[in-house]
């Protein structure tokens, strides 16, 4: 068997394209899929935790348009102030100045912060004016600034107040509206009229805030952008409370316009003071009234009521009957699915609700069973075609069973939700008339207040035009709306990022595991890098075994037997000279299957009526005595030391023409025994009695005993095990050939189809190598070593 590789070809660097192995990649992906799912779940969970504990930030925006007009007042004053970029920039700075923000502070209740505590003190929400109570008071001492003052609503008429200052705890129980005065503050707690049960159980607190700190905070959050082309000013603010953000933005715009008006009409301010005071007063009251109506609507859930008629109860009853029918049908079908092996009599499933249909899967199973029954007329149940159909039927049944379970879960969930919806339907049906009348009255009052405020603005405009003739240079182009969606964090983006990061980490894991994989899995890779012939490839055996066995006798027509016949035939291409031949097997490390190869090559040669004997030269870790269950009180060690003759150590294997000699008692100097002339004499004597002498040598990667035997062999065989032997072992074989000058050395790949090698090459696929003889990695462990510890989970992750 001629080798096409050369030392020159071995020295050629392999390209990434040549080294890439799609089968290995598929194997790594398959083994990593659980880790990838775990990593994705962890990343998505972390993103959910991040979203859970990250405060939502809302942005409110309003636009102010600059509309400079040059008019003559009826009182004789003329507006000659024209706006340029410098003037607009000055006005922008005015919006963020303490002067204007102080006016905003005066307009809005920002010096008292209202909060609701979550499950832990680290989680809280800012309520602004949506609290069930309102604080009216002033601070006496700066010590109380930013100190949480807890308020517990005992009932609508009594509250409990608790706070701690400088390590001292204070507790009070007061009637609502009753003034509480101490050395820190003087205040009264007013409970709102719309208190509900949830408000009584919630944990609320408020803080007296420093005016300067609040102004600085607003100035930091407030963003003012100018578009000189359209002469518009965009005012935006981000805050954790959407109502507070809208109120501040609206107030900044309003106060800016008011200030601009005041700046232009200093001469007539006294005339309009009364109207402005009324506007400011009723505007605040109107906003508060509107906010209270909105809060009441949200509390009562009125936004979802009165929008069309409620569905008829008969529709719910029809759905209930449909769910019960479909659930009963599915449960009976599941029992039939688990108890019947034949589906020929199975009828189609007719659901009353839009439910997943299983008719296609049922028809496929019936079709496969009919096909199987036809094949059974000419074949046994163990025939590959029958077994393949059985597997397809089992897979379809498993998938159908899983689909039925998923559909049952979905139907039960929807049935439960329908019952809850029906309960809500009954509850809402009773609430609608009373709530509608109540909110109609409130809306009527709000409309009257709105009409009153609009009337005041009309009066103001009339006096401005008629008395002063000066109009504002700024107008609100777009009023600030209540933000509904937070601008930060972006929940969908965060979850998508968590999912993508999990996928990227999973891909990184695949790449790392692929790059760290260093065992032989590809025949092409071995042939490309080795400088000696590849004698044959032995596939995996189809049974588990504790130790090496002779398998070629068990099933002469099996794939593994054919592989050993191919090795036997290929031996003739190495050397075809007449006469007895010596075959030796070695490997780099234990566990690569050299004893297994030796036994089965010996057995396959004995089938040709050749006299064959196996010699166990692995005197440090003998195996033949255990395999054939004999007592190794004599053998190779006693022959080489001259204690016994050869014939006394020969055992009959029970297989015609096949004998063996065990390693004998463990000698203190096995390497020296092999170097004695007695070895050559023994082999020459055995050549007179046997056609083939097969020598099982120690692993050459651990001891050098095998080198001398390989040099004396006609057929030296080097065993590599798929998905077990390291890739560097190939270079070790090349080095042994170059340095030790071993002739006729050839390689046999053992256990091909194991692990990633089952994915690794078209060679195994074409020849049908797909079995498993299962001596695991523990087969070779313990050769001059202690028992190894189990690998850690981290090592398993990158194995």
Based on the model shown, name its key terms.
eight-stranded mixed beta sheet; six-stranded antiparallel beta sheet; 21 strands; 48% helix; 16% strand; elongated
Structure commentary:
Helix content is 48%, strand content 16%. It is of the alpha/beta class and 799 residues long. The protein has an eight-stranded mixed sheet with strand order 14-21-20-15-19-16-18-17, sandwiched between helices. Strands 3-2-10-5-6-7 form a six-stranded antiparallel sheet. Strands 11-12-1-13 form a four-stranded antiparallel sheet. Strand 2 and strand 3 (124-126) form a beta hairpin. Helix 3 runs antiparallel to helix 13 (491-516) and helix 11 (359-375) runs antiparallel to helix 12. The radius of gyration is 45 Å and the shape is elongated. Residues 1-12, 70-83, 304-310 and 760-790 have low confidence and may be disordered.
Summarize the structure.
The protein is an alpha/beta fold and 799 residues long.
Counted beta strands:
21
Main β-sheet, spatial strand arrangement: 14-21-20-15-19-16-18-17
- Indicate the percent of residues in helices: 40-55%
The parts where pLDDT drops under 50 for at least 5 residues are: 1-12, 70-83, 304-310, 760-790
In round numbers, the mean pLDDT is 78
Tell me the distance between the termini: 36 Å
Shape: elongated
How much of the sequence lies in strands comes to 15-25%
Class computed from helices, strands and strand pairing: alpha/beta
């Amino acid at each position: 068997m001629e080798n096409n590789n050369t030392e020159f070809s071995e020295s050629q660097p392999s390209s990434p394209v040549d080294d890439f192995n799609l089968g290995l990649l598929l194997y790594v992906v398959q083994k990593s899929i659980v880790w990838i799912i775990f990593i994705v779940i962890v990343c998505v969970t972390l993103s959910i935790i991040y979203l859970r504990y990250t405060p939502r930030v809302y942005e409110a925006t309003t636009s102010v348009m600059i509309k400079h007009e040059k008019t003559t007042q009826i009182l004789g004053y003329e507006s000659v102030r024209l706006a340029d970029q410098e003037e607009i920039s000055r006005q922008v700075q005015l919006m963020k100045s303490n002067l204007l923000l102080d006016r905003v502070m005066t307009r809005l209740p920002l010096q008292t912060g209202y909060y609701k505590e979550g499950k832990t003190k680290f989680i809280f929400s800012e309520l602004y004016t949506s609290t069930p109570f309102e604080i009216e008071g002033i601070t006496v001492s700066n010590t109380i600034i930013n100190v949480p003052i807890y308020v517990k609503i005992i009932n609508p008429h009594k509250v409990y107040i608790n706070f701690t200052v400088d390590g001292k705890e204070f507790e009070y129980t007061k009637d609502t509206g009753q003034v509480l005065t101490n050395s820190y503050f003087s205040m009264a707690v007013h409970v709102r009229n719309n208190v509900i049960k949830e408000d009584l159980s919630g944990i609320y607190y408020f803080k007296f805030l420093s005016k300067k700190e609040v102004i600085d905070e607003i100035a930091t959050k407030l963003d003012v952008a100018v578009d000189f082309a359209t002469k518009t000013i965009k005012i935006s603010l981000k805050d954790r409370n959407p109502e507070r953000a809208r109120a501040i933005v609206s107030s900044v715009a309003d106060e800016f316009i008011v200030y601009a008006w005041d700046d232009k009409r200093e001469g007539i301010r006294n005339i309009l003071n009364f109207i402005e005071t009324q506007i400011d007063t009723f505007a605040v009251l109107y906003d508060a009234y509107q906010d209270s109506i909105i809060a009441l609507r949200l509390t009562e859930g009125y936004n979802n009521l009165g929008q069309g008629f409620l569905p008829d109860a008969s529709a719910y009853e029809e759905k209930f009957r449909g769910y019960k029918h479909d659930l009963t049908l599915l449960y009976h079908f599941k029992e039939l699915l688990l108890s019947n092996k034949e589906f020929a009599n199975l009828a189609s499933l007719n659901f009353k609700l839009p439910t997943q249909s299983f008719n296609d899967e049922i028809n496929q199973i019936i079709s496969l069973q009919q096909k199987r029954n036809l094949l059974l007329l000419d074949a046994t149940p163990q025939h590959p075609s029958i077994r393949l159909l059985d597997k397809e039927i089992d897979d379809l049944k498993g998938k159908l069973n899983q689909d039925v379970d998923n559909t049952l879960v979905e139907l039960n969930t929807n049935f439960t939700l329908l019952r809850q919806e029906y309960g809500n339907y009954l509850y809402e049906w009773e609430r609608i008339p009373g709530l509608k009348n109540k909110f109609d009255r409130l809306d009527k009052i709000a409309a009257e207040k709105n009409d009153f405020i609009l009337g005041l603005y009309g009066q103001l405009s009339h006096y401005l035009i008629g008395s002063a003739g000066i109009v504002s240079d700024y107008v609100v182009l777009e009023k600030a709306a209540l933000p509904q969606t937070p601008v930060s964090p972006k929940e969908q983006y965060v979850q998508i990022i968590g999912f993508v990061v999990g996928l990227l980490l999973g891909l990184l894991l695949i790449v790392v595991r692929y790059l760290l994989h260093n065992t032989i899995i590809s025949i092409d890779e071995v042939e490309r890098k080795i400088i000696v012939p590849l004698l044959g490839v032995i596939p995996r055996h189809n049974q588990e075994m504790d130790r090496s066995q002779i398998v070629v006798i068990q099933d002469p027509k099996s794939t593994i037997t054919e592989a050993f016949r191919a090795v036997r035939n290929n031996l003739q291409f190495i050397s075809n000279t007449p006469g007895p031949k010596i075959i030796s097997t070695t490997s780099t490390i234990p566990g690569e299957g050299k004893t297994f190869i030796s036994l089965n090559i010996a057995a396959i040669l004995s089938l040709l009526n050749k006299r064959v004997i196996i010699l166990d030269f692995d005197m440090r870790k003998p195996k033949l005595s255990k395999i054939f269950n004999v007592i190794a009180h004599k053998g190779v060690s006693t022959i080489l030391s001259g204690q016994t003759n050869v014939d006394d150590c020969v055992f009959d294997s029970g297989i015609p023409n096949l004998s063996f000699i065990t390693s004998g008692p463990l000698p203190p100097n096995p390497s020296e025994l092999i170097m004695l002339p007695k070895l050559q004499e023994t082999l020459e004597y055995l050549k007179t009695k046997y056609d083939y002498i097969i020598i099982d040598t120690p692993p050459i990667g651990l001891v050098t005993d095998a080198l001398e035997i390989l040099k004396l062999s006609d057929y030296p065989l080097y065993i590599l095990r798929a998905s077990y032997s390291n890739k560097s072992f190939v270079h070790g074989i090349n080095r042994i050939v170059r340095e030790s000058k071993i002739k006729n050395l050839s390689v046999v790949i053992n256990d091909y189809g194991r692990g990633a090698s089952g994915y690794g090459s078209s060679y195994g696929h074409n020849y049908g190598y797909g079995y498993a003889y299962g001596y695991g990695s523990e087969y070779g462990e313990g050769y001059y070593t202690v028992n190894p510890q189990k690998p850690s989970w981290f090592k398993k992750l990158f194995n």
